[in-house]
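Sorry to interrupt, but I need a hand with the structure work. Could you write out one complete protein record for me, on any chain you like? Could you add the entry underneath, on a fresh line?
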Amino acid sequence: PGDQEAGELGLAAVPGRQAAFRQGLEAAVHYARAVGCPRIHVMAGRVPLGTDRAAVAGEMETTFIENLRYTADLLSQEDMIGLLEPINNRITDPRYYLNTPHQAAAILEKVGRPNLKLQLDLFHCQIMDGNLSRNLETYFPLIGHIQIAQVPGRHEPNSPGELNYPYIFELLESLGYTGYVGCEYAPRGE
């Protein structure tokens, strides 16, 4: 994730931080290998403070694609998958570079490597775009991992909220999803 105390949340798309990204990736591969984890979340990072998103978007995309190709080559040697997670910029992180499944899919297409996949967090997807059924169907071939939380409070999936997880789980099963579903939420209680 980079230097979180300095406000970083990933480095893969941050211009000028390529060396630090690669060093962090190598450490992540070392740890993943040690624990037998075949997937690594490749965090895009934030738009630099004081810069306009539109003004740096092209440079960030170029950096991201370059780093993702490097990542794919390294991970292929380890038989690992790299995961890109769009994080909503409406509630969670206004400066995070990768915000929607559509943006992630376009970048994955440009990179063109089969060992890079979409980590679809349904909380973020619902905040940014809604239409989860269609988005799951559309992006299913790209999905390498799914995470869940209830919307709007990012609490337990079975707490009151917008998302009907029994329906979503049935849809995932009908689509043929066989991976894990990670729970990433803030507990309402203890």
Q: What stands out?
A: The chain is about 45% helix and 10% strand. The CA atoms of residues 36 and 104 lie 26 Å apart. The longest helix spans residues 53-78.
